[in-house]
Amino acid sequence: MSGQARRPARRRDPRPPQTRIARSRLVAFDVLEAVRDGEAYANLLLPTRIRRAGLDTADAAFATELAYGTLRMQGFYDRVIEQAAGRAASEIDPTVLVVLRLGVHQILAMRVPDHAAVNEQVALARKVAGPAAGFVNAVLRRVARTGAEEWRERIASAERDEDGRLSALTSHPEWIVRAFRAALEHEGRAGELEALLDADDTAPRVNLAILPGLGEQAAADAGVEPDRYSPIGATAEDPIRLAEASGGRIRVQDEGSQLAALALSRAEPIRPGERWLDLCAGPGGKAAVLAAEALAGGATLVANEAVPARAELVRKALVGIPAEVEVRVGDGRAIDAGGTEAGFDRILLDAPCTGLGALRRRPEARWRKRPADVPELTKLQGELLDAAIGALKPGGILAYVTCSPHTAETFGSLGAALARHAGSVEQLETRSVVQGVSRHPLDLAGGAETVQLWPHRHGTDAMFIALLRRTR
Ligand SMILES: C[S@@+](CC[C@H](N)C(=O)[O-])C[C@H]1O[C@@H](n2cnc3c(N)ncnc32)[C@H](O)[C@@H]1O
């Protein structure tokens, strides 16, 4: 019998490492092509493609870093490619450009040896872009001749002003750089702009919400690490598996989203019988927290969502909560509160917004959003605010929340609604409510009536929270 036959069975992937890594690169390429082509979202598509390709954990991590990192840094990489190729990115075939961007990310930001990055991308180019392989080879070799730091200096020195420099180096469109600066200036913290932009380019940790009264035992059994701020938040060694095994009682959720939901549910003690509404509930992350809080306090929740498929996600998000939650499909602007007498005691308006506060999670979002989206959204936010205020009982509380720090969507939409409803709505001290909810004091700036969370300061998405009370 040969020595090999006597060895215990090995469970390692028998394919040579090159082939396995090539498959990860192909997955990342497919995802970037789909994102470029249409409406695909990397965070939804990537897990499916990884599963379909049968990648193991290490290869899946490589594909994820390659796809997400390349998408985030696309603006910077295109400038590098333009200098190395001696032509504008818009003049390069889009598929070839994707192959090049993936190569540049491996060379400048991943620990892939230059020769491996170049050879593998040339092989990929041969497969997907035939005759362009020679061009890919030449450009990537030129990129690899210069170190990452020197590329940064070269790219920065090609920019005319500070906004251009920040935009190029941190790979954010200039209008987003300006919007972030304005939001930070609004709270007297303009000096934090670079830290914010850098934080956006860093992959966020996977954070968990332990649904109050429901998920604590499973969380304790798994030995989770409590979050710094959210009293129901935690991290775990294998968060996805823990969430999947919990029957919906432990959920993946950003700490800032948890604080936003808790700001409403814990703004004041719950009186049994209260009626709550989540006006724009899909996909249901905050609705799940509210439903658990309502269950514990003797309140009931209605969750409304305009898009049927997203209302279905709300239903799924609520499976672990043993409470009757009515899920409605409808335009929140026409919400039926059942007459003034039967209005709601608390309403969450987690408004449709540009999502500029969650760019870490949606790597392609910064390239898809347009300044023209802002006025469309602020109009909708205003209409939803009017509907929400109209659906509140006198004395009832509204939480206006956005996952965008853009001041038009935060102070702009809010201020206009306050002016329209002057005399019947007042602002509450949101800051003290959120500080009261938080495990540790949050470093918050600006006025006491609103709370703006930040990725660079709090490690959360940039959530904006404002609590209002209807006075009559
Ligand atoms: C920011 S998301 C809400 C996120 C949700 N609260 C969560 O934590 O999972 C905004 C939601 O509003 C929905 N939406 C957009 N326009 C709407 C409208 N006119 N009425 C109700 N929902 C709307 C969107 O489909 C989207 O699901």
UniProtKB/TrEMBL annotation:
Transmembrane segments: none annotated. Pfam families: Methyltr_RsmB-F, NusB. Keywords: Methyltransferase, RNA-binding, S-adenosyl-L-methionine, Transferase. The keyword Nucleotide-binding does not apply. Residues 182-471 form the SAM-dependent MTase RsmB/NOP-type domain. The keyword RNA-binding applies. It comes from the Bacteria. One of its GO terms (molecular function) is RNA binding. S-adenosyl-L-methionine binds at C280, A281, G282, P283, G284, G285, K286, E305, D331, D350. One of its GO terms (biological process) is regulation of DNA-templated transcription. SUPFAM superfamilies: NusB-like (SSF48013), S-adenosyl-L-methionine-dependent methyltransferases (SSF53335). InterPro entries: MeTrfase_RsmB-F_NOP2_cat, MeTrfase_RsmB-F_NOP2_dom, NusB-like_sf, NusB_RsmB_TIM44, RCMT, RsmB/NOL1/NOP2-like_CS, SAM-dependent_MTases_sf. Belongs to the class I-like SAM-binding methyltransferase superfamily. RsmB/NOP family. This is rRNA small subunit methyltransferase B. The lineage of its organism: Bacteria, Bacillati, Actinomycetota, Actinomycetes, Micrococcales.
